[in-house]
Records
---
Amino acid sequence: MRRWIAIKQTNEALVTSSDTGERIAAVVGAAEAAGYLYTSEDEPLWLRGSITGQPYQGQTPLSLMKEGSVEDIMNVRRYLMGLTQGGPGPNDVDRDFTPYTDDDLKWE
């Protein structure tokens, strides 16, 4: 990251893979949304706190963004963006939702 910041300060071209570019854009978008939602004191608590609801499934938002796929990072970003646009967090029913499995589907 420091290398990228140094390149940006010298106005050199920053060349990355499309995967890295997507990850950077998603993390920046999530950080921007978190900045609207949380004070500077609350943001670290939220980032490091374990969340059981979707998309986190017991992971912290920070670990999901660091270790997850691009889609995981986008899910964190979408969740935060939804909250900034007035969407509520998970309600009591959704908080403990277990995803359906093939065994749950019955075809007649």
---
Amino acid sequence: MIAFPGADRPLPDGELRRRREKVVREHMRAEMAGDLDACLATMPGGADYAIKATGREHHGDEQVRELLTDLLGAFPDLRLVPELVHHHAVVVAQLTGQQPAADRPDRGTM
């Protein structure tokens, strides 16, 4: 069982959930298209990414823009599949894509 921040709070009503999920889909579409301005615009309160697999956190538009620029450079065919939209500021997504052979580090898989 995964405990998400705010999981003890009641879920918002259906209309609010639909609006939030629409923003998440817009964000992911913009991210996959490489439109970082549109991507960051979906987070008007300030961008904040925490990558659990690496333990790295990126706070603010500048750090998140740098992260996304690096990510899109490493995975030009990036695809994101939302697996869970938790309505207390958590999105779990599956990232897929292939790094061009010339860009792969010689350290095995990520």
---
Amino acid sequence: MGRGKHSIGRRPIPSLLAHDQAPAYPRHMRDYNRSNTPLAQKLRRNMTPWERKLWHEHLKSLPIRWQRQKPIDEFIVDFYCAKARLVSCAVNSLLN
């Protein structure tokens, strides 16, 4: 699936948990492996042509905030929208 690891977290959505089962982290923050941050920064600087096209022609101009190369858990996802809890991975046509 593209380069690197891509996945949607397997953790339950916090808003669906009972109040006494709420996770310890704030709702707006996702757990992530801090050692992935330098790689995520490098991937942001060196986007593939497909990622660049998707970012500059579509996601960047949307009213909802999207993030590029976002570390989540042990993964780095191509695009992430926290408000919608949505992950998008740009996969080039050669892999299909």
---
Amino acid sequence: MADVSLRESELLVANQVILPLTKLNEAAVTRHPGAKMLDTDLQEQSGRYIYTVTLVDTAGSERTIDLDAATGNVVKDERS
């Protein structure tokens, strides 16, 4: 996996390769209403872009959600 820079992510969004990061953030938080985002990360993995959101849900549990950055589909949602 390779980290994607902010500049590269802006180009990917502009070229419609991935969804806007705000939409991906919304998709993650929608799964856990009331959750607070702690961190985000975009990585390229075998030609696929994975957007990871780490958040704390209303029960105080830390969660990691991986989204396919092109579609917004959840790849993984697990409690840390």
